[in-house]
Inverse folding.
């Protein structure tokens, strides 16, 4: 009963591509969740980017006020605050996206289970 | 369930009021409209963003019996308030709980010593004579009488106590049995050294409170056992047909598609590993989702294009805690009863959302399959167990009820040939 | 003379690094992609090296110097550009894993016309980006060396020398060389900024106090009229009736102009070919994402310093211009006539000729690293997407490599020619910083033509090849037309908006893409494409193999002991 198809099936058992595999439905789900994450973060990003120059029109204090010496809140925001904000939002988005992908695609790591196999109830 | 939005609306309204008060009335020249609106908008945003986390409070490592915790509240304020409130016996009659109870009771009974025993040994002793009466000793002789008769025994003479230590200061005793509802499990003993008896009524009253606590503890334990048993049954009851069909599918593909066969075997082993290894009543949604995905991909191998699935998952829901083995049975029902009978197949949609404002996790499993006939639907919603129902909805509803009490909602809508929608709402944990 | 020596030594050092770690056996794969095994931080530094060109190194400080707060929008936009990259592009781009942008779009949309159109757009962007770099090297040469060679003007000599040096480096080094040199070069730039910032602060510069002093009188810049220079107050674009101040908005842009500029820069980064090519060298999609986080952090640090130095230059140069005769030649009442000189002058004020030399080297390094990245991207798209695919289907690796290198030569020569045609003096005064402004045009082109198509191709299943072509052409044509109109209109209120056209052209491109896509049929095998682009199976496999390898090595070394 040994046909030739099975003959070349003796590849390394743990590195075959079958061990890690995504189905289209799973990928589609992860994709839509990630898209939601991305759009949410872009919305926050856009709001802040627009708010910094726009606040000048609404609030005199924003560009006329003085925090320390001659530094207005707007100047401080443009000179340091925005960069910190970019970094924070990027870190948050990257962490969330990675966590989403980890939970929505693939399974828990399997290597750890092999040694425990013996302790399973018969 | 939307009990979170109303307070928020109130708070926002108050904030605007405060902003108006400060900027328009208190500040000497009132601030401009733009400034006021801006401050208000900022405050509102901060409130809306911060509200859910403020509502959630610090994340505690909550144990898993919210239902039982509810039952226990509201039983304070009996004769001796301190005892009623602290309830050291709620975890059952153990040496540790008995010790704490004895420490608690001893100061209330001036000059007396207090002992708590089970049916054979002293579990705790507090007060004069504690130097030679220790926990783990055999019970004094008259205890057996109290245990056997289930009634209070009064010991007036020192000789009856048969204490081997000649210097023992204890002379009289009141021994009251403790029950956990239907059987006596131990005694409460109050000794005195001045020759008088402790007031029998007080001691019996205390024993009554303790018995009530023990009864509650027993009730809790039994309830938990029942839920555990249900879950164990569910775990053991993975449909043999499912395994059978999957193995058949795999066997039929061995020769044509070795790669897919390997994938399916890996998924099958994932599926069973999850069932076997899962412990406790709750798991992260992400884990349950993995289980559902594994199950669906196995079914898809069998049904091919006839079973399509669409997941719609909120990023926040992935870390929420949900009861184990609830979602997969819902999906299984949708495939088995909804789609399998339809020639052209259909789509199962699993939608999971979190509402941080109302602290609710909502999960919806919908299919566009055969639907449930009206009479069967009525029987299911009445809680009867449908015969073709597999791991029926009544089972799921029962487990949810024991986990959440009244704080969950499970709705089923179905039209014949129009599909079924199962809506589940549980508290966010 | 010592400073020239220093400059030569430093350049020689950077060049020799490139030659020393040159791969011994050059294959096309290694030439373009450095074998795809580059660490997250190294890759982040290399991306920064590619990204921070003369526009960032000299241009941002120059723009802040010339128009204060409004000049800072450049830095904001450059740094913001990586946020959309991270959110929309980094991970899927890496996971789909091709050689270059045209390759990516061509395979994703399964269309040859998309590939050819995007090659054309990519070449256009690269050219638009190369010209300001060449201009910057000309400016540096003009100030630093001051004299031409062989009858050429100093400016022309600078342009030609830098172009020749770059062509040599790319031809010799390959990309593995440049990944490391890019990282090293970026660290050099950062070190120079940190050094300068430390010296400036140590010499008594106080940020808030300097701002108060600068904002105490209206902003005024030198203007040439009738052969003499005099200071003229800058008109406030937000409130024309009141003067503009250094620390307040209005010095350069109207409300709309600010948005248009930030949007142009923020969207442009995602379409820059030399930056996007770097993402293909990340080991996994997750690593590509984390690389971007690092880039954003490093860029934030870099631009914070750049803005600080621009402010410091405005304050310090004014204070010392009267005492230093060489400075008096460059300034009018304490304000530099060419704002690009700001950092160079600051270097000389605090570090003498050696300080000037260091800044000049930094600027040249910024120019060189960016040009190298651009030329490599250009070579990749010519050699890989055109030569191997259409001209010589059976090309050996060697032939493809040489085709790429020949393309480098042509593109570099072309950009040098354009840079020679542009006279920086003819354009200054019109813009806060000519180099930064010209780079904006490249960003606008990239953000209009490529970014919308990119985002749609990755996140919208229905995108088709025809739609992408329509989108790219619409975006490019709109952007170029508006830019040209802006240059021709000169100093009118709308010119600034016209020269940052992304705010109009990107939506146009997106609408065109969507409309044409809906009318045509998407590729057949969408599920397979989607699994490859958004699935993590390949990533997980790579991580597991890496883990097994590490475990195996660990076990073997334990047994060996």
């Amino acid at each position: 009963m040994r046909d030739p198809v099975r003959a070349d099936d003796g590849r390394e058992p743990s590195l075959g591509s079958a061990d890690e595999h995504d189905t289209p439905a799973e990928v589609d789900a992860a994709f839509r969740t990630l898209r939601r994450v991305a759009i949410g973060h872009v919305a926050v990003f856009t709001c802040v980017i627009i708010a910094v120059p726009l606040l000048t029109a609404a609030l005199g204090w924003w560009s006329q006020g003085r925090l320390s010496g001659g530094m207005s809140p707007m100047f401080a925001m443009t000179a340091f605050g925005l960069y910190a904000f970019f970094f924070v939002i990027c870190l948050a988005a990257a962490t969330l996206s990675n966590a989403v992908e980890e939970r929505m695609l693939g399974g828990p790591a399997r290597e750890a289970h092999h040694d425990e196999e013996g302790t399973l109830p018969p | 369930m939307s009990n979170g939005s109303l307070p928020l609306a109130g708070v926002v309204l108050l904030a605007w009021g405060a902003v108006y008060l400060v900027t328009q009335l208190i500040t000497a020249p009132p601030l401009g409209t733009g400034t006021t609106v801006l401050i208000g908008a900022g405050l509102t945003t901060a409130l809306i963003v911060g509200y859910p986390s403020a509502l959630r409070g610090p994340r505690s490592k909550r144990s898993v019996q919210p239902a039982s915790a509810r039952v226990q509240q509201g039983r304070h304020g009996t004769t001796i308030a301190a005892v009623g409130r602290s309830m050291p016996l709620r975890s059952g009659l153990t040496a540790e709980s008995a010790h704490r109870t004895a420490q608690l009771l001893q100061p209330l009974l001036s000059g007396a010593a207090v002992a708590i025993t089970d049916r054979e040994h002293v579990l705790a002793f507090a007060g004069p004579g504690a130097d030679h009466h220790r926990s783990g000793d055999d019970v004094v002789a008259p205890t057996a009488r109290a245990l056997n008769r289930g009634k209070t025994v009064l010991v007036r003479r020192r000789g009856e106590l048969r204490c081997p230590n000649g210097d023992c200061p204890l002379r009289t005793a009141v021994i009251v049995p403790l029950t956990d509802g239907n059987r006596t499990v131990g005694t409460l003993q109050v000794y005195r050294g001045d020759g008088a008896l402790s007031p029998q009524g007080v001691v019996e009253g205390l024993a009554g409170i303790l018995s009530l606590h023990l009864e509650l503890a027993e009730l809790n334990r039994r309830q938990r056992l029942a839920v555990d048993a249900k879950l164990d049954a569910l775990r053991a009851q993975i449909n043999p047909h499912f395994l059978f069909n999957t193995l058949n599918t795999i066997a039929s593909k061995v020769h044509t598609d070795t790669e897919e066969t390997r994938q399916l075997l890996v998924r099958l082993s994932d599926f069973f590993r999850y069932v076997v290894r899962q412990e406790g009543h709750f798991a992260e949604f992400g884990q349950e989702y993995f289980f559902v995905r594994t199950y669906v991909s196995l079914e898809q191998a069998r049904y091919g294009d006839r079973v399509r699935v669409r997941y719609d998952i909120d990023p926040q829901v992935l870390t929420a805690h949900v009861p184990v083995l609830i979602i997969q049975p819902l999906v299984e029902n949708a495939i088995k009863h909804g789609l399998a009978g339809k020639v052209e197949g259909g789509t199962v949609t699993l939608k999971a959302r979190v509402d941080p404002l109302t602290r609710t996790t909502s999960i919806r499993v919908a299919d566009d399959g055969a639907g449930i006939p009206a009479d069967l639907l009525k029987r299911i919603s009445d809680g009867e167990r449908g015969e073709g129902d597999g791991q029926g909805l009544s089972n799921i509803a029962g487990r949810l009820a024991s986990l959440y009490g009244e704080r969950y909602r499970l709705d089923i809508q179905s039209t014949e040939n129009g599909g079924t929608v199962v809506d589940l709402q549980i508290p966010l944990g | 003379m010592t400073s020239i020596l220093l400059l030569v030594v430093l350049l020689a050092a950077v060049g020799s690094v490139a030659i020393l770690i040159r791969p011994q056996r050059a294959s096309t794969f290694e030439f373009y992609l450095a074998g795809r095994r580059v660490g997250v931080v190294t890759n982040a530094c290399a991306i920064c090296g590619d990204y921070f060109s003369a526009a960032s190194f000299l241009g941002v400080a120059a723009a802040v110097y010339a128009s204060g707060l409004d000049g800072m929008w450049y830095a904001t936009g450059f740094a913001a550009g990586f946020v959309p990259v991270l959110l929309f592009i980094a991970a899927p781009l890496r996971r789909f894993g091709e050689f270059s942008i045209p390759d990516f779009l061509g395979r994703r949309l399964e269309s040859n016309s998309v590939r050819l159109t995007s090659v054309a757009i990519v070449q256009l962007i690269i050219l638009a980006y190369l010209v300001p770099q060449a201009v910057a090297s000309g400016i540096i040469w003009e100030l630093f060396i001051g004299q031409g060679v062989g009858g050429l003007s100093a400016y022309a000599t600078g342009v030609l020398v830098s172009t020749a040096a770059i062509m040599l480096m790319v031809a010799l080094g390959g990309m593995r060389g440049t990944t490391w040199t890019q990282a090293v070069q970026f660290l050099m730039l950062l070190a120079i900024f940190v050094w300068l910032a430390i010296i400036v602060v140590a010499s008594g510069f106080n940020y808030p106090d300097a701002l108060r002093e600068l904002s105490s009188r209206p902003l005024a810049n030198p203007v040439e009229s009738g052969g003499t220079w005099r200071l003229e107050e800058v008109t406030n674009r937000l409130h024309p009736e009141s003067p503009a101040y250094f620390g307040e908005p209005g010095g350069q842009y109207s409300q709309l102009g600010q948005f248009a500029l930030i949007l142009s820069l923020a969207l442009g980064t995602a379409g820059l070919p030399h930056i996007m090519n770097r993402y293909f060298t990340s080991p996994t999609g997750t690593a590509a994402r984390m690389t971007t986080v690092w880039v954003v952090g490093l860029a934030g640090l870099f631009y914070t310093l750049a803005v600080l130095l621009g402010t410091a230059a405005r304050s310090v140069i004014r204070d010392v211009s009267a005492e230093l005769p060489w400075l008096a030649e460059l300034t009018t009442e304490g304000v530099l006539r060419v704002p690009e000189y700001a950092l160079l002058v600051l270097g000389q004020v605090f570090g003498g000729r050696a300080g000037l030399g260091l800044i000049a080297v930094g600027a040249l390094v910024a120019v060189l690293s960016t040009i190298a990245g651009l030329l490599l991207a250009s070579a990749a798209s010519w050699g890989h997407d055109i030569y191997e695919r259409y001209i010589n289907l059976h090309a050996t690796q060697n032939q493809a490599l040489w085709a790429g290198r020949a393309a480098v030569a042509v593109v570099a020569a072309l950009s040098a020619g354009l840079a020679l045609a542009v006279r920086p003096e003819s354009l200054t005064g019109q813009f806060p910083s000519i180099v930064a402004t010209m780079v904006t045009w490249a960003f606008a082109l990239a953000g209009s033509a490529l970014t919308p198509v990119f985002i749609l191709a990755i996140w919208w299943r229905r995108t088709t090849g025809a739609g992408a072509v329509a989108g790219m052409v619409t975006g490019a044509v709109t952007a170029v037309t508006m830019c040209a109109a802006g240059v021709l209109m000169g100093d009118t209120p709308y010119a600034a908006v016209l020269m940052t056209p992304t705010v109009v052209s990107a939506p146009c491109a997106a609408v065109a893409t969507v409309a044409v896509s809906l009318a045509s049929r998407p590729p057949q095998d969408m599920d397979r494409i989607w699994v490859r682009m958004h699935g993590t199976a390949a990533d997980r496999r790579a991580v597991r193999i890496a883990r097994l390898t590490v475990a195996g090595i660990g076990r073997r070394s334990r047994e060996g002991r």
